[in-house]
Amino acid sequence: MALSATIYKAELDISDMDRHYYANHALTLAMHPSENETRLMLRLLAFALHADEALNFTRGLSAEDEPDLWKKDLTGEIDLWIEVGQPDERRLRKACGRARQVIVYNYSARAAAIWWDKSAKDFAKLDNLSVFVVDDASVAALEAMAARTMRLSFTIQDGEVWLSDGEVNVPILYQTLQAATRG
Fold first, then answer.
1. Distance in angstroms (rounded) separating the CA atoms of residues 130 and 124
2. The CATH number of the domain where 122 resides is what?
3. pLDDT tens profile 10-56
4. Total structural domains in the chain?
């Protein structure tokens, strides 16, 4: 018998002063049986950082030809393709050909460093690719806030990200490994 996805509900209050975006989002996330809460929370962080009415979670791990999140324009063209983790160079090259902008949010500093060292030269050729690695302490803070029902506030100002669950307020730190030169 196949394992089914675990459903999580999240209410996000996003105040992104850098983009002048202020909205509440009621989200339903499906955690794939092979996914863990860490990865789920990184997908939620990626949503908060790029929140938009047109940004959507995809089938993710269940579909090879879809990212974790994407934003399409009214014609169906992909404006934004977001991956969480350590996708291979071939997948990112294909994504960069399909989307105006591609973003990777990596985590687990040690594994991320190995992945980056192996592929940085190839990634440098992809001018619409941005790559970030989320700090291990921030990943742990995200994971600690994971619950089947969540109410979270993200405040983004001057490139700094703060996350609150109403009781705990923590900074979310990440480092830019590569910034897109177009897109």
1. 10
2. 3.10.640.10
3. 999 999 999 999 999 999 999 988 889 999 999 999 999 999 999 99
4. 1
Residue 183 lies inside a defined structural domain of this protein: no
- The label of the residue with tokens 């018998």 reads 1
pLDDT recorded at residue 183: 63
CA pair distance 168, 183, nearest whole angstrom: 35
Q: Tell me phi and psi for residue 90, to 5 degrees.
A: -60, -40
What SS3 state is found at 4?
coil
Q: Residue type for 27, please?
A: L
Give the residue numbers spanning the domain of 133: 6-178
Residue 1 lies in a domain: no
> Is residue 25 in some structural domain?
yes
CA 133 from centroid of its chain's CA atoms: 11
Best CA proximity match to 40, nearest among 130, 113, 139: 139
> Which candidate, 77, 36, 40, places its Cα nearest to that of 57?
40
Q: Residues 134, 172: contact at Cβ < 8 Å?
A: yes
- The 10s digit of each residue's pLDDT in 59-82 is 765 557 799 999 999 999 999 999
Q: Does the CA dihedral 55-173-116-60 come out positive or negative?
A: negative
Provide the H-helix boundaries in the chain: 37-49, 89-98, 109-124, 136-144
Strand 78-84, strand 169-172: pairing:
unpaired
State the greatest distance between any 2 C-alpha atoms of the chain, in Å, as a whole number.
Answer: 49
Tokens 């690719």, located at residue: 129
